[in-house]
Write a structure and sequence with these properties.
The complex is a heterodimer of chains A (about 280) and B (about 350). Chain A has about 280 residues and is mainly alpha-helical. Chain A has 13 helices and two strands. The model of chain A has no long low-confidence stretch (mean pLDDT about 90). Chain B has two domains: about 5-230, Rossmann fold (3-Layer(aba) Sandwich), CATH 3.40.50; about 240-340, Nucleic acid-binding proteins (OB fold (Dihydrolipoamide Acetyltransferase, E2P)), CATH 2.40.50. In chain B, the strands form five sheets. Chain B has a six-stranded mixed beta sheet, with helices on both faces. In chain B, strands 15-19-16-17-18 form a five-stranded antiparallel beta sheet, with no helix packed on it. In chain B, a hairpin with a 4-residue loop joins strand 16 and strand 17 (about 300-305). In chain B, helix 2 (about 90-100) crosses helix 3 (about 105-120), helix 2 runs parallel beside helix 4 and helix 3 (about 105-120) packs across helix 4. The chains are: A mainly alpha (about 280), B alpha+beta (about 350). The complex binds adenosine-5'-diphosphate and magnesium ion. Magnesium ion binds near residues 42 and 43 of chain B.
């Protein structure tokens, strides 16, 4: 009897231990690191982070990227999953192609876009061949912040829209067709059906996709580093810089703590904004 | 108010035919039930009328207008779905208002219509609830109220009562009949439950394998089935069929001499309803051997055989029957049906 009640816990134990060891321990260590200074415990490292020349830029870039790319990805993924519902032939192939970026590592994706967008890249070559430009153009430099931002936005959009799409497609498939049919019988146009029926019913999936995507967008690193290098600092790349280039683990930990807090806050905002209304679900 | 005219409608799913040429007129204000076994094409026909699926061939007119190529929302109809399809994210009030809202109805009119439909279906107290807070029967009422609120010219219902328990079904059936009779809405009602069809409909269309086998008033369908299928489908228990030889233009059954329609050679199928038989104490009759007697209250249902052919009989509950008993039976000769055993179709009395 005793063995019976213990067994589930014994089976769960390894996964708990794994998580605790590899998540909570580093988390606690990071926080400890962030607050430990040469003179004891304090906020000195955070002050140093705030004084970092690239701190403001990295905050601005991070939020700018997240606030632009996530809504765009949500819109695109919604559009894609709606279109896919009307496809009969080749649905699987379209699905497969649309989700290819899921299988590509961040860094590889970044390098692909770097190859396209550098001054000797494919885009330059093509534009030169068709005569749009007369010589190589640089888009990824400090002097062209707009183009650089657009390039990183494009790369990140290409790389990570699929994850939003996959979550939404799964959600769309869970909605019985009858609801939309009922709506169309009762006079709803295609837009009204989407706006009044599909979108509200998709809210749990949208919530999941947004949280997942927003958290990952705050942590976007490899693509940003590959395409933007030092010209486009973000919070995570600053953490990397302080850790490995400046070898100041304390300030790096401050950046890491900041990213964690920002992700948590974003998750909370999305959870609250898209929470089910009272009584709507049992 | 509008009539529905269905002309030679076919529907193929790939090479498989779901409708094989269906024609049906539902008159203005009439209640027609589509009745048939599962898979006979009832839902397919209803969805074609609603515009949710396009028929392969044929025309569908509503109110004299060819709607074959119109989307559902332009057809001026309302529908009650088998699983209700009550929107889970909307309160009952907004569910009922949905159709009116989509067509841009004025706010005060929407309120009046919602209140009226809710009153008709006795769900005034539920207006501020969400569907998850309702029972199956209550959701069903919301689905009907949503359809009634738009005051549709045509109302389509696909097995609206099939998910309710027996008692609730009976109650809703009675209520539906009262509500729809007073609204005089043209109604096409799909069901596989003959009691429902008989109880509700002005006319019943019996469907079988993608065709309408017979259409008529409930009593006509019951009394004069046009085929062995209809006779065997309608009635509980269904009509008995005996395969009997014709000799000298008469059919002998025990000491009975029956007259089939003239000019028949070879065997015929004689259809007799279980309740159209009585025990013959004296006079002509045929011998029926009881296998299983089931006292059901209003009558005793006897399952047995006549000259080796199985038969069910409903007799008055005033006698005790044992398995193995042999009783003499006599049919009500005014209620006999004669069928061609090869085509399965009724033989006309000429
Ligand atoms: N979407 C579909 N694809 C292929 N076959 C279908 C489809 N819908 C219905 N059918 C077939 O058409 C026939 C009629 O179905 P249906 O109209 O749903 O029957 P009923 O409502 O009378 O039970 C069935 O044989 C069913 O298998
Ligand atoms: Mg059906």
């Amino acid at each position: 009897m005793r063995g019976q009640t213990l067994r589930p816990y014994l089976l769960i134990m390894p996964s708990l231990a794994f998580l605790l060891l590899l998540f909570f321990v580093p988390l606690v260590q990071t926080v400890a690191l962030a607050f430990s200074t040469t003179t004891g415990t304090g906020v000195g490292n955070f002050v140093q982070m705030l004084d970092d020349l690239d701190f403001r830029d990295s905050v601005r870039n991070t939020f700018g990227l997240v606030l632009c790319v996530v809504p765009l990805q949500l819109l695109a993924a919604l559009g894609m999953s709606m279109m896919l519902r009307h496809v009969r032939w080749g649905r699987d192939i379209i699905l497969w192609i649309w989700t290819i970026p899921l299988g590509i590592s961040d860094l590889a994706a970044g390098l692909v876009w770097l190859a396209i967008l550098t001054d000797k890249g494919y885009l330059n070559t093509i534009l030169f061949e068709v005569g749009v430009i007369s010589g190589p153009q640089s888009w990824l430099t400090y002097e062209t912040p707009g183009a650089l931002f657009l390039a990183i936005l494009t790369a990140e959009f290409w790389r990570a829209t699929a994850i939003v799409f996959v979550v939404l497609v799964a959600g769309v498939q869970l909605i019985p067709r009858e609801y939309e049919e009922a709506a169309s019988v009762f006079g709803a146009t295609a837009w009204q059906r989407f706006r009044r029926v599909t979108l509200p019913l998709l809210r749990p999936s949208i919530q999941t996709a947004l949280i997942l995507r927003t958290v990952l967008a705050f942590e976007a690193f490899a693509v940003v580093l590959a395409v933007g290098g030092r010209n486009f600092p973000v919070l995570v790349s600053q953490a990397y810089l302080w850790q490995f280039t400046n070898q100041n683990y304390n300030v790096a930990a401050c950046y890491a703590v900041l990213v964690t807090l920002v992700s948590l806050a974003a998750t909370l905002v999305i959870l609250i904004a898209l929470r089910p209304r009272a009584g709507e679900s049992a | 108010m509008a009539d529905i005219r269905i002309e030679s409608v076919t529907k193929y799913y790939g090479s498989q035919a779901a409708l094989r040429g269906v024609s049906l007129d539902v008159h203005n204000g009439e209640f027609v039930a589509l009745l048939g076994p599962s898979g006979c094409g009832k839902t397919t026909l209803l969805r074609a009328v609603a515009g949710l699926d396009r028929q392969t061939n044929g025309r569908i007119e509503i109110g004299g207008r060819d709607v074959s190529d119109l989307p559902p929302r332009s057809r001026g109809l309302a529908m009650v779905f088998q699983n209700y399809a009550v929107f889970p994210h909307l309160r009952v009030r907004d569910n009922i208002a949905f159709g009116l809202l989509m067509t841009g109805t004025a706010k005060d009119r929407i309120e009046r219509q919602v209140a009226r439909a809710a009153a008709l279906m006795h769900i005034e107290a539920l207006l501020d609830r969400y569907p998850v807070q309702l029972s199956g029967g209550q959701r069903q009422r919301v689905a009907v109220a949503r359809a009634l609120a738009v005051e549709p010219a045509v109302l389509l219902m696909d097995e609206p009562l099939s998910n309710l328990d027996a008692l609730l079904r009976l109650e809703m059936r009675t209520e539906l009949k009262a509500v729809l009779a007073s609204a005089r809405t043209t109604t096409l009602y799909v069901t596989h439950d003959q009691t429902e069809a008989m109880g509700l409909a002005d006319r019943i269309a019996i469907m079988h394998e993608g065709r309408i086998e017979q259409i008529g008033s409930p009593l006509e369908i019951y009394r004069q089935p046009k085929s062995i299928f209809v006779g065997g489908f309608i009635g509980n228990p269904p009509m008995n069929f005996l395969r009997l030889p014709v000799s000298g233009s008469v059919v002998r059954l025990g000491t009975l001499i029956l007259n089939p329609p003239a000019g028949i050679n070879g065997p015929v199928m004689l259809g007799i309803r279980p309740e159209d038989l009585e025990v013959a104490e004296t006079g002509a009759g045929f011998a029926f051997r009881v296998h299983v007697p089931e006292p059901l209250g209003p009558h005793i249902l006897l399952t047995g055989d006549v000259e080796g052919q199985s038969m069910r009989v409903a007799v008055a509950p005033d006698r005790v029957m044992q398995p193995g008993d042999v009783v003499m039976l006599r049919p009500n000769t005014a209620r006999l049906s004669w069928m061609n055993p090869d085509t399965g179709l009724a033989l006309e009395n000429s």
